[in-house]
Design a protein that fits this description.
With about 270 residues, this protein is an alpha/beta fold. It folds into two domains: about 150 residues, Rossmann fold; about 110 residues, 2-Layer Sandwich (Dihydrodipicolinate Reductase, domain 2), CATH 3.30.360. Helices cover about 35% and strands about 25% of the residues. The strands form two sheets. The protein has a six-stranded parallel β-sheet, sandwiched between helices. A five-stranded mixed β-sheet has the order 7-8-6-9-10. α1 links the parallel β1 and β2. α4 runs parallel beside α5 and α6 packs parallel to α7. The longest helix has 17 residues.
């Protein structure tokens, strides 16, 4: 349809990229208008729909990100930090909104995403799942209510191929927890424990990382006090939940002014 939102998928040959292609294709009000793969990939030149296993869409995968982004309204990114930064710059130049789901960015790379948001709407989300977004909101509230008498630990597990740790989602949950306590996460984060560590420092937020198999994503937050523990958690059995949230964010971004947003804005948890 003429008024359908034109969505471009970065990393269309990857697992998340293919899921995003499928989700866009099955969602009313939007169409797959472009998809990229890395130069030299066998996916370049293939039909995006055929690549994703849903039949012909009439959109060929390209290795030219600039050309693809120039022809879409919103770009969805689940790739690598360097690719995400380049895409953010191109989106800002082309006037395309961006759903930025790549994790593992350095502070300098995150700043590039922020710069792009001065020109176009950018939804920055370490995790686009509706459930994880709710978990983060609950975690912030729990941290505020329970206080420093409850030690906080964040446990996460992902598939064996994930290259960053702790996961971007775990760190985002850590940010929510720190916000609930009124502190900066960088001042209280404890991500590595080995050897003779001494007693746990009051107020620290600890992180533990597990990797193995094909786990899509599991996160558990433990509030441990003398005599009791409170746990909050989320388990993703399929990456499709991330694609559903990403497309929902893309549709929401269509009518937003330039700015840096997150999934809480998309779901109405924040103004």
């Amino acid at each position: 349809m003429a008024n359908d939102l034109r969505i471009g998928i970065l990393g269309g040959a990857g697992r998340m990229g293919q899921m995003n292609i499928r989700q866009v294709a099955m969602t009313d009000g939007c169409v797959v208008a472009g998809a990229t793969a890395r130069p030299g990939s066998n996916a370049v030149g293939q039909d995006a729909g055929e690549l994703a296993g849903i039949g012909t869409l009439g959109v060929n995968v390209t290795d030219d990100a600039a050309e693809m982004i120039a022809g879409v309204d919103v770009v969805i990114d689940f790739t690598l930090p360097d690719v995400a930064v380049k895409a953010a710059r191109l989106a800002a130049q082309a006037g395309a909104a961006m759903v930025a789901g790549t994790t593992g960015l350095s502070p300098e790379q995150e700043e590039e995403i922020i710069k792009a948001a001065r020109h176009v709407p950018v939804i920055r989300a370490a995790n686009t799942s509706v459930g994880v977004t709710l978990l983060a909101a609950l975690a912030e509230q729990a941290a505020r209510m329970l206080g420093i008498d409850y030690d906080i630990e964040v446990l996460e597990m992902h598939h064996r191929h994930k290259i960053d740790a702790p996961s971007g989602t775990a760190l985002a949950l850590g940010e929510a927890l720190a916000k609930g306590r009124g502190v900066n996460l960088g001042d209280v984060k404890q991500a590595v424990r080995e050897g003779h560590t001494g007693a746990r420092k009051a107020g620290d937020i600890g992180f533990a990382t597990l990797r193995g198999g094909d786990v899509a994503g599991e996160h558990e937050i433990i509030f441990a006090a003398n005599g009791e523990r409170v746990t909050l958690g989320h388990k993703a059995s399929s990456r499709q939940v991330f694609a559903v949230g990403a497309v929902r964010a893309a549709l929401w971004a269509r009518v937003q002014p330039p700015g840096l947003y997150n999934m809480r804005h998309v779901l109405g948890f924040e103004d």
